[in-house]
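LAB NOTEBOOK - FOLDING QUEUE
OPERATOR: T.R.
BATCH SIZE: 2
PURPOSE: Compare the predicted structure-token outputs for two unrelated chains run back to back under identical settings.
PRIORITY: normal
REVIEWER: second-year student, initials M.K.

ITEM 1
FIELD SEQUENCE / FIELD STRUCTURE:
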Amino acid sequence: MASGNAAKRTKLDVDDPTVAAFIDRVNTEYETVHLAFEEQFWGTKMALQGDAPDAFSTQKLSETKAAMEVFLGQPELMKECQGFLDANSGSDLQRTVLTVFKRTFSCYQMADQEALALRKHTTEVEDELNSRRNLMRLGYTDPTSGEFVEKSSVGLRTLMRTAEDEAVRKAAWEGLRSIGQFILDNKFLDVVKGRNQVAKKLGYKDFFDYKVTQAEGFSKDALFDILDTLRKGTDGLVDKARARLADEKGASALEPWNTSFMMAGSIEKELDPYGHGLARSQARRLNMLTHRAGTFPLRNPSSRGVGASRSLALDTKEQP
């Protein structure tokens, strides 16, 4: 009897060739639009130079992003995917893939034409802001020579952790702060307003509520309830830590350009600032790539190289 049940489960849990074809088709088509977007994203983000002068541009970034979102937002894909799920088609693994497909497609469904137009405009403003930020001349003014020294944000943070001279640490901190004013001067608030307008058109309180709901499945109010519980359980710990730091290192240790230096310890100063900063930068970039991609292995389970290269990402971070 037991063996009969096992055989029955095995018979029922088999790959459906029609579902397999759908999964492969979606992943193959998605790979094309996603790769085009990612190449433009990193090309503009890192100010890369391609084979042609206009290989990477803000306009192409906006166009490839729009193409990816149009693909994921196709009502026909959602309908076909839902049809397979409703019919309980395919193996357990195939239905798992279809469930992730459905979740991904649902994040990009947008029937409101005004919301679509707002999203397109906001994306263009955001891409232009990112392009200008990539070309921003960042660094600090040397307090001794008065000369401007170019440094990346990673290099400035490294200086704040390792420079013996407080004046240099403060100059590095001021260099970092200049990023905030720069993006404000380049329509960052327009991006915020546009995102919130899109979210409200879709029935959410604001963009943050939209993002949390899409990514986590519950509202921002529910998230804040969770965070409030954590806050209440840790109240006073930061104040105690700051008080102890001031007691041990002096009140100036609480200045924003001094805190990381005072807490770093001797090992930070002994490490090569450039190599150490590079390692941190690489680790941060790897984390960013992992977070941004959010990639699920969604190839047809019976295909060769499951999830190796062609996969559909639940990339809610890239929504406006």
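ITEM 2
FIELD SEQUENCE / FIELD STRUCTURE:
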Amino acid sequence: MSTKGGPSTGGRVGRTRGFDRPYTQEQYICWGGQIISLSLFYALGGSGFSANAFNTVVLGLHGSIVLVSLGLWLFLETHDPTEPSCWSRRLPDSERWTKLSYDRMHMKKIEGLDHFCPWLNVSIGRSNYLPFILLVALGLCQFGLQAVVGLLWALSGAYTTAGLVFIVLHEVMVAPIWCMYVMLFGFHVYLGVRGLSTYGYLMEMKKPKGSKPKAPKAGIRRDDRPSDSGVSGAGGSADGGGVKGEGGGSAKFSKLSASEVDEELGLPSGASGETEEPSSPSAIELAVDGAEGGGSGGGGNGDTVTVTDTDTDVAPAENEALVVASTNDETISM
């Protein structure tokens, strides 16, 4: 599925990969932690290699995990998540993985957007979610293996006092990293069972308990069939079914497709579809002709109400703009 992005605002350019500058603090911590922990592990394994018969198997298994992890990490850091990949086809075509959501860091819409990872400095979506979760699983195995083997080395009696100091240093560094991988992997397993993304989970946690989901927003158009319910021009009552003028005329409204929006607004075909600017709202014009007495408190015939709405996937800061305009040269902004 294609993605569309908008031009940068304020001179800022959207990210395309994890190696794009500026780097995050978490990236530096990740790189430094891996280098130090691997250096300690292989130095300790090499110094006690002959004393421990299992070192050959342990170091070989650990080295294989590190190499596969390195390949996955390089893919995540160099691949643009707005573009499809071979991993995209391994996920089902459900709403969870096909929905396009706007990402502020990349300034584009990403298919199956899950979250932005500061440790990789890249957003995780459909095209890179599987290598991400595999990297987490391998990190869980890598640091779990290092922690267990470090304890076995300490109990083997093959190391001097200086060696034991380095083993303790290694364990102090590795244990919290392993716990972080356990929590991260467990969290994503929980999300997978529930069919949620990270963003979806966070939004669910923000909702007050017992609140009802909002009805989806849609275009509306006039239908000249009679209606007994509506918004009265004189009395100001609203029953939600239509718009009724003083003279007894009434109007109902039905959903409006994108092509019909263009026709109602007098725009070129396709003008009301997705634009290159993801934060640009779509406009729906609602023409209400008051019957005999005019609509809404005795105004003239042909009043125009314009409702400007935004899609929920665009930048939240520009959401919920409402402008009501009238042909009687009066404008009310809310």
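REVIEWER COMMENT (ITEM 2): The helical segments are 25-47, 55-78, 95-98, 129-156, 161-194, 198-206, 258-265.
FOLLOW-UP: none requested
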